[in-house]
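User: I'm putting together a small comparison set for a docking exercise, and I want a reference complex before I start. The sequence is below, and the ligand is S-adenosylmethionine. Could you produce the 3D structure with the ligand included, as structure tokens?
Assistant: Of course. I'll restate your input first, then give the structure tokens for the complex.
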Amino acid sequence: MNSFAGPVGGAAPIIADKAPMIDPFGRAVTYLRVSVTDRCDFRCTYCMAENMTFLPKKDLLTLEELNRLCSAFISKGVRKIRLTGGEPLVRKNIMFLVRELGQHVKAGALDELTLTTNGSQLAKYADELYDSGVRRINVSLDTLNPEKFKAITRWGDYHKVMEGIDAAQKAGLKIKLNAVALKDFNEFEIADMLRFAHGRGMDMTVIETMPMGEIDEDRTDQYLPLSKLRADLEEQFTLTEIPYKTGGPARYVEVQETGGRLGFITPMTHNFCESCNRVRLTCTGTLYMCLGQNDAADLRTALRASENDDYLSAAIDEAITRKPKGHDFIIDRTHKRPAVARHMSVTGG
Ligand code: SAM
């Protein structure tokens, strides 16, 4: 039975079902990623086209509705929530949702509330994030060179992001830097980025670019298999596999020379779906059970059908029965079209 314990506004603790949601392949679904907006203040070339059409604002769930949806997932066994986007910190009044969800962390119903951000708004929000119960965040950064940063993000300001990182560390937030590995762009810069991250006490993760959504460029030109990057790094660093896990898809090594951790997210060269514990909610209330498949469930209708959560709970249960075994991304010259039409900004990273 679903034991949702009422509205969250006043920190009413939610008692999770004893059994977590289990998909048809026996995987427990304990991690919810929420794209709170599809809008972003950057236009990273591998992520979006420069002229994007975003959702009309009227189609978005309110932050109260997103809060109710997240709370329903917590009551059904979700232990970790990541806010993402688009850029989560550009959604108006986003700190309302962060504070509400932070109550679940404080009440022990959620192990972790975190977010993935491009860092542009961190200087403004770092202290409030920490006060709300956020302890670790991922900051996406693909280069340490301000001109290259401008070229890859099109609209981003490198110095603002650096100020954001400074502010976040000062506020006590642990940071993991995420870099998408891009051929002929940051391929030979990753070693310096690693030294920078580890020198500042940050973990770092490198990610393979995925064929999601039409962009203005050819993904074959951008794609860099991490097996190649790793082999290059091993000429300079001693990398030792470690069992460290953060609940996400990265596999970690320890870098002997820096004493820090480096994660590899390899959706292309090493499919990690067998251990997938995640589902992804968009800002319109659509639930994707896999980042790389089109099948989805409409939770908005169930959410709005009733003030109690019975329909919603049933719709979530039904969606979990449809969680697929995995994705099958391919990037090569014969596969010109993206594996899924939606951009990463719809479901978040
Ligand atoms: N705006 C936030 C940010 O920059 O982190 C959150 C959303 S962004 C879509 C999340 C992550 O997805 C970023 O690290 C970004 O670099 C990555 N990303 C975007 N498109 C990608 C793609 N096609 N393949 C791999 N990673 C991608």
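Residues 40, 44, 46-47, 84-85, 87, 116-118, 140, 178, 180, 207, 209-210, 212, 344-345, 348-349 surround S-adenosylmethionine (CB under 6 Å). The chain has a mean pLDDT of 92.
User: Thanks, that's exactly what I needed.
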